[in-house]
Amino acid sequence: MKRTIQDYVFLFGIAALIVLLDQWSKFLVRTQLMIGETWAPWDWLLPYMRIIHAKNSGAAFGMFQGLGGIFTILAIVVTVVIIYYFPKVPREDWLLRLAMALQLGGALGNLIDRIGQGGFVTDFISVGGFPVFNVADASISVGVALMVFAMWFKESGNKTAGSASNLDKGDPQVQEEVQSD
After folding, report:
1. 123 is a catalytic site residue
2. Which of 45, 48, 103, 172 is deepest in the core (most CB within 10 A)?
């Protein structure tokens, strides 16, 4: 029981930091800029990076506009799945655990927006020609990338470990291949 509580402290601690940063930044944008208004600290930065107040009724990066209700349900499902599976992930898989915490924080940040903003999410980070996004979107994206990397890293490690364990078991085919090298 104590281990599960410690697991959840990590999960909810990281997720809470993401939610706080996400909601604080969205609050600043909503109170300081009109929808569509752009701000950059230096004019030379405008072509490359700017803050722009945008409302998004779709998914991350403005995809699937008008499907906010579906994404509200999806965020709830993702939240429940992460909370359920997180304690089952071994502590040694810290990268996978971090990825899940980032995804949870992002899902909750956008869910709070959808519930409080009538199905919309506030987006504001604009980099070059890339679609406008927010802290929650970035957290989800980084979490997914980390998850893919962690799973790939673990899988490639298992293949190497599996080959070594076959040698230990005296597998004649593997020993023959090693001797022929």
Report:
1. yes
2. 103
Using alpha carbons, list the distances in angstroms from residue 43 to 37, 84, 97: 14, 47, 40
Choose the catalytic residue: 113, 137, 168, 171. Answer: 137
15-53 pLDDT tens trace: 999 999 999 999 999 999 999 999 988 888 888 899 999
Candidates 43, 123, 171, 181; catalytic one: 123
pLDDT score at 153: 79
Rounded Cα distance between 56 and 63, Å, is 9
- What the block records as the tokens of 165 is 């364990």
Distance CA 81, CA 75 (A): 10
Number of independent structural domains in the chain: 1
Print the domain residue range for 120. 2-180
- CA dist., res. 103 & res. 96, Å (int): 11
Told to judge if 93 belongs to the known catalytic residues of this protein, a careful annotator would answer no
Q: For 65-95, give one letter per residue: b (16+ CB within 10 A) or e.
A: eeebeebbeebeebbeebeeebeebeeeeee
